[in-house]
Amino acid sequence: MLVEFGFLFGKVLAPILLLVALGALLKKRHPVEMQTLSNLQLYLFIPAFLFVHIADSKLTLPQIGGIAGTILLIQGLLALPLYGLLRWRKVPQETLAVVLLASVIFNAGNFGIPVALRAFGKPGGEVQALVIMTANLSLWVLGYGLSAAITGGGWQGLKEILKLPILYVMAAGLTVRATGWHLPEPIDYALHLVSDGLVPLALVTLGVQLATQWRLPRWKLILPVAFFKLLALPAIAGLVVWKLGLWPWPGAQLIVASAGPTAVNSIFLAIEQKGDVELAAECVFWNTLLSAITVTIILAVVIRLGGVPPGMSQ
Predict the structure, then answer these.
(1) Dihedral sign from CA coordinates of 172, 186, 53, 163
(2) From CA 158, how far away is CA 145, in angstroms rounded?
(3) Which of 4-13, 42-51, 154-163, 291-300 is predicted least confidently?
(4) Around 101, how many Cα atoms within 13 Å sit in the side-chain half-sphere?
(5) Which residue ranges does UniProt annotate as crossing the membrane (predicted)?
(6) Which domains does the chain have, with CATH numbers?
(7) Position 153 pLDDT exceeds 60
(8) Whole-angstrom distance, CA of residue 144 vs CA of residue 208
(9) Which residues contact 13 (CB under 8 A, 6 or more apart)?
(10) Taking the complete model, does pTM exceed 0.85, yes or no?
């Protein structure tokens, strides 16, 4: 198992961490505008990736719906009891929102995509595209839902959700897929080119974000969040995919995806909700570092148990 761990770490996680480190070094040596990098991902690179992988996907419509529904079920099975526990413990609202989001919403984009592609190739990317769509929707719906509960700003939250390009990209990708219509070759080539550029941009952006968010941790809060996010959520995912008959595929990718660290966008939501922004930043930073170990272990276990795409050798 130790040899397998070392092999997978070197094959999957080490190249990812190298690009993240280069992004952090870039931030330390040169002024980098974080908002510009985030906007490039959210409004150009991720939409192109989603469209390409949904339109070209070999997954059936029931499989697509099953993947989206499974991710929401996995998140709900942790979010509901955790919310009840936090309310019972009378945790302040600004801390409650951060802990809940940091524990349930995972980094499906700039961490999850390269892990999926390195571990499982194109089939992993197809599944991860749907995971991104679902994880981002749940992030903003849950985040703005909490914001509405705290501040009463429900309509503003709905407007922000409707601005997300992934809603319209998903609809366009499914339409092209269902009709069999082919985009003009120059447009199709440009979309694939942008889609292929997402991974390096996402990892460099993650490195810039981590370099910006470095701070000494409050372990009393960080460790419980790390337990829920990095261990409890993938354990729940394993149980769900087994019960729903999604093992070995796409269940393996859903488990690995759920093991990803806290989503970076939880920081932006904490800012909007006037929550504990420092705690959100600490959760993102330390969960990302710890996930290099936990994701490798979970990936090794998943592969050893036969969790690979059809036709892929273990």
Answers:
(1) negative
(2) 9
(3) 154-163
(4) 37
(5) 6-25, 37-55, 61-83, 95-117, 129-152, 164-183, 189-209, 221-242, 254-271, 283-305
(6) 2-27+34-304 (1.20.1530)
(7) no
(8) 26
(9) 115, 292, 295, 296
(10) yes
